[in-house]
């Protein structure tokens, strides 16, 4: 179940998810850090990391 612990809930649609991913990738390029994928064995367990939020 994705977003089980996300207080904002799931993205409303594919376009919103794409825009969110673009912003995360841009953040990593701008600041050198950001979100990472978390795996449990070969299974994607979620995301983790940090971002600068002004």
Helix and strand arrangement:
Elements: H1 14-31, E1 35-40, E2 43-49
Antiparallel strand pairs: 1-2
Treating each run of at least 4 consecutive H or I residues as one helix, how many helices? 1
Distance between the termini: 29 Å
Helix and strand sequence: HEE
Rg, Å, rounded? 12 Å
Low-confidence stretches: none
Helix content: 25-40%
What is the 3D form? Answer: globular
- Biggest beta sheet attributes: 2 strands, antiparallel
Total beta strand runs: 2
Helical/strand content category:
alpha+beta
Mean pLDDT: 87
Strand order of the largest sheet: 1-2
Percent of sequence in beta strands = 15-25%
Q: Short description, anyone?
A:
The protein is α+β, with helices and mostly antiparallel strands and 54 residues long. It has one helix at residues 14-31; strands at 35-40, 43-49. Helices cover 33% and strands 24% of the residues.
Description:
This protein is of the alpha+beta class and 54 residues long. Helices cover 33% and strands 24% of the residues. It has one helix spanning 14-31, and strands at residues 35-40, 43-49. Strands 1-2 form a two-stranded antiparallel ribbon. A hairpin with a 2-residue loop joins strand 1 and strand 2. The termini are far apart.
